[in-house]
Specification:
The chain is an alpha/beta fold. It contains five helices and five strands.
Length: 148
């Protein structure tokens, strides 16, 4: 699969958030072999949990799939730039690469507010932004326009 096809899978997860009233953010984690081993979507409203972010759910599923907390060599695809909590989970799980769609000017930690991955932590994944950015931003804009 291509990077765009993996992000399309993350967008499918994001769309699944909408019926529950959650902000549409989706994520998939891909093994070094190219298999999707983790999927997640924002479930903060549905679950009533501050930590129910797409990346955390996908990381938990991927860890269960590989039988370890280390996701060495894996790539995380997420529709929205990770927040500080998710950036910390990415660092702690040793994910090798992050590819995100839309920037998050209020809490983004890949450079929008700050780049947590450039700080003095023991792990520094590669970061690529703007993958299918229009589609990722569009689903968020459409969601928020229905709330106003």
């Amino acid at each position: 699969m291509t990077h765009e096809e993996y992000m399309e899978e993350a967008l499918k997860e994001a769309r699944a958030c909408i019926p529950q009233g959650d902000v549409p953010v989706g994520c998939v984690i891909v093994s070094p072999e190219g298999d999707i081993i983790g999927r997640g979507r924002n479930r903060r409203e549905a679950d009533g949990l501050a930590t129910a972010h797409a990346e955390v759910e996908a990381i938990n599923m991927a860890c269960a799939a590989v039988g370890s907390w280390r996701l060495t060599g894996c790539t995380l695809y997420v529709t929205l730039e990770p927040c500080p909590m998710c950036a910390g989970a990415i660092i702690n799980s040793r994910i090798a690469c992050v590819r995100y769609g839309a920037r998050e000017d209020k809490s983004g930690c890949c450079g929008s507010v700050l780049n947590l991955f450039e700080e003095r932590f023991n792990h520094h994944p590669r970061i690529y932004g703007g993958l299918l950015e229009e589609a990722c931003r569009g689903i968020l804009e459409e969601f928020f326009s229905t709330l106003r």
